[in-house]
């Protein structure tokens, strides 16, 4: 009440710009953190297939039948044995081991760049649908 009309001077004197800048920085931080969770891109080309040695995978033919066999298989899987006798490494596995979430980040930055270039958001969304369906 005592400040009265001086509050508009405080807001126009830089306080409002600082608050706006802080809110935009916080928004970009949250956007960057959510990219990894919400954007999903998977490259499925097989890079290598390696035959595992005996004892490194579940031998399905030697398991007992019935519920006991299922329980044994689940215990072996929980202890770290593979489900198949070969280990398949895909391009996505290699990318995730180097920089997890790098491709989704690149896609998001591409969309932001296109928005800065005044490309319509509807065009970007339709292009993402087309590329996603064709890629699948």
Outline the structure in words:
It contains five helices and two strands; from the N terminus they run αβαβααα. It has 136 residues and is mainly α. The protein has a domain at 43-94. Strands 1-2 form a two-stranded antiparallel ribbon. It is elongated and about 85 Å long.
Task: Please outline the helices and strands.
Layout (H helix, E strand, L loop, with lengths): L5 H33 L7 E6 L15 H12 L7 E5 H8 L3 H15 L4 H15 L1
Antiparallel strand pairs: 1-2
What order do the strands of the largest sheet run in, or round the barrel if closed? Answer: 1-2
Helix-strand pattern: HEHEHHH
- Alpha carbon gyration radius: 26 Å
Largest sheet: 2 strands, antiparallel
Question: What is the end-to-end distance?
Answer: 62 Å
Mean pLDDT: 85
How many alpha or pi helices? 5
Low-confidence stretches: none
Key structural traits:
mainly alpha, 8% strand
Gist?
This protein has 136 residues and is mainly alpha-helical. It has helices at 6-38, 67-78, 91-98, 102-116, 121-135, and strands at 46-51, 86-90.
């Amino acid at each position: 009440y005592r400040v009265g009309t001086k509050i508009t001077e405080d807001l126009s004197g830089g306080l409002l710009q600082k608050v706006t800048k802080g809110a935009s920085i916080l928004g970009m931080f949250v956007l960057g953190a959510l990219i990894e969770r919400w954007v999903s891109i998977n490259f499925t080309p097989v890079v290598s297939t390696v035959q595992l040695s005996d004892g490194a995978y579940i031998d399905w033919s030697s398991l007992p039948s019935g519920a006991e066999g299922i329980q044994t298989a689940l215990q072996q899987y929980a202890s770290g044995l593979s489900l198949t006798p070969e280990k398949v490494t895909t391009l996505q596995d290699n990318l995730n081991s180097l920089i997890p979430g790098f491709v989704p980040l690149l896609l998001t930055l591409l969309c932001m760049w296109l928005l800065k270039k005044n490309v319509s958001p509807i065009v970007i969304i339709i292009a993402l649908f087309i590329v996603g369906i064709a890629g699948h």
